[in-house]
Amino acid sequence: MHHAPRPHVSAAIVQLRMTVTWSALAVILASVIQMLSFCFVHFTDVRWTTLETPPAAQQLTVVSPETGVAKGGRAARAGRQVVYEPTRVLSRWDGTLRTFSDASASIGLIAAATLWISVLLGAVVAGGGSIPGVESVIRAATWSTVLGLSAIPLIVHLPGLPLHGTFVSYQTMLGAAEGAEQLAPVALLASHLALPLIGAVLAGYTLLCFREGVEAGVIVRSVSELDRKLDKELESIRSSGISSHHGQRVVGVVDRPLGESGPSESTTAKSRSWVSDRDRGLGESSPGNPLRRPM
Questions:
Q1: pTM, 2 dp
Q2: Can you tell me whether residue 78 is helix, strand or coil?
């Protein structure tokens, strides 16, 4: 049976779909930046620089106060050479990594919360609007809940989970990378590499499920959207064979004007079993009862 989208439901779905799309992309970008920041901090020395000793300072000599009279009346000075070691200081990349890491953590937390709430609202709207494919929206809501809970930084307080959450601050990342928190290597990599990677995958999967689930509830308002729907219908016909069911769906899409929701099923096939078979409209004469005869 062909589903006719409702205009008010379609407008709500379009708004939620745009919010979910941008939120999911922000979560993916923030997760990638978190992983790259940890790799630079833990596996490289890019945040450090070495200050070399100036050549003039390498030959400095400290003169001892004890002097003696040498041959020829010249004073002999006993001296010792001072050795200078290179000094490691923070480079300008440390500030750059701190800025990008903290910004990605903040954006990722906000985007994950927005994605979570938007998908839940989409599930309510899709269920209330009886949109075919609502099961995909529910699947997206489930995984967005997992993503939202894993992004909370307070997950570190849960017993048996020495994790910091998907999005952490740069200071927390430094403490874990430099061994200040005594984390096992597996827990370290799981917290700062595996968890952001899983978060990015979940965000992408949630986005795909949500867009697939609400597609039937969006009214076609452009030629490009109509072409995509026709291509999808033709591909479905090629894969499963020609049948009257698919033919009705294609004809329904083509014949409906862009932006028009079309006739409702309840108005075109309304049952009239609650009235008498002798009912008549206003202004029509009564046919009378043929079984009754005048006395």
A1: 0.66
A2: strand
